[in-house]
Write a structure and sequence with these properties.
The chain is an alpha+beta fold. The chain folds into two domains: 91 residues, Phosphorylase Kinase, domain 1; 196 residues, Alpha-Beta Complex (Aminoglycoside 3'-phosphotransferase, Chain: A, domain 2), CATH 3.90.1200. Helix content is 31%, strand content 15%. It is built from nine helices and ten strands. The strands form three sheets. A five-stranded antiparallel sheet has the order 1-4-5-3-2. The protein has a three-stranded antiparallel sheet with strand order 6-8-9. Strands 7-10 form a two-stranded antiparallel sheet. The longest helix is centred in the middle third of the chain and has 19 residues. It comes from Dactylellina haptotyla (strain CBS 200.50). This is Aminoglycoside phosphotransferase domain-containing protein. It holds the Pfam family APH.
Length: 302
């Protein structure tokens, strides 16, 4: 019997720091003017630009943050060969916009090919994802420096709860829950007085685990050829250290979302199998938190 693998600890002090970081010795950084000029979305203030001749994609704008680049670096550093991610070449801040330079991974999204693969192939690719999710959930913090926030000790950024407005990192699950519910309470008219009745539904006795934050089919790049394999997990902008149930609730909340109108009209998840059969292959259930989480989210207006 093989002995269990020792836990892998993320050393925050080793993460690349600063607003002007270049990590590649073989790739030249395109200027910000070149990136803006090649923008396919036409928004000079923020976009995702594909520089296909360079094999590069650049994500830029005021809502792009260093933590995403640090997370990509950490996945390569700590989970190489286990969790495939685009290579991060570096980042650069120009005024209010951060430019994040990454490898352009050849392939298609799992969302794009979902209707063309059978149930067995779907199960196989979701089993691959399950191993990856387990790997990053098994990452550990310094036991003497635990927090809830983004990887480099930045405050949480999460679209669902709008906790991107949180001014600080959170020191415990209790702090997280109190902060989360405070957002709800502060939006009530008239303000709710006393402990919120839903607070008891959120146990503080849950572990803090590393979380992607947006496990949607559009964020998995898979091979064009069969057998289908995961080539990259992308879009780590909402990732960080969260209570263990958070990934489940976030994933469930995006089930009805489809980036492609054409795919949605074609019924990319019409049979409900993604929710009922395949999400359970990817990550452990947090179903006991789903109802209070969902209700709280909607009370926030999202």
């Amino acid at each position: 019997m093989s002995s269990p693998k020792p836990p892998v600890y993320i050393d925050v002090s080793k993460l690349p720091q600063g607003d002007d970081v270049w990590l590649s010795s073989t790739v030249t950084r395109p200027s910000t003017a070149e990136v803006r000029a090649c923008s396919e979305g036409g928004d000079p203030e923020g976009d995702i630009t594909f520089l296909r001749e360079l094999g590069m994609v650049v994500k830029y704008g005021p809502e792009v943050f260093v933590a995403e680049g640090q997370t990509l670096w950490a996945m390569k550093e700590y989970l190489s060969g286990v969790v495939p991610v685009p290579e991060v070449y570096g980042w650069y801040r120009e005024d209010e916009a951060l430019f994040l330079y990454m490898e352009l991974v050849d392939g298609v999204t799992l969302e794009e090919c979902w209707l063309t693969i059978d149930m067995e192939e779907r199960a196989a690719v979701c089993a691959q994802l399950g191993e990856m999710v387990t790997a990053w959930r098994d990452l550990r913090q310094d036991p003497d420096d635990q927090f809830l926030g983004q990887i480099g000790r930045q405050p949480i950024r999460d679209r669902i709860s709008h906790m991107e407005a949180a001014p600080r990192i959170l020191s415990s699950v209790e702090d997280f829950h109190d902060n989360f519910l405070f957002l709800l309470v502060s939006r009530r008219h008239p303000p709710f007085e006393g402990p919120h009745p839903w607070r008891a539904e959120f146990s503080d006795d849950v572990p803090i685990v590393f979380t992607h934050g947006d496990l949607h089919k559009s964020n998995f790049i898979v091979s064009r050829e069969k057998p289908i394999r995961i080539k990259a997990v992308i879009d780590w902008e909402q990732s960080g250290w969260f209570p263990s149930y958070w990934e489940y609730c976030k994933t469930q909340s995006t089930v009805g979302f489809c980036k492609s109108k054409k795919l949605k009209e074609a019924g990319v998840d019409k049979d409900g199998s993604w929710k009922e059969k395949f999400i359970p292959l990817i990550l452990p259930s947090g179903s006991e938190y789903w109802e209070p989480w969902f209700t709280t989210r909607h009370s926030l207006g999202y």
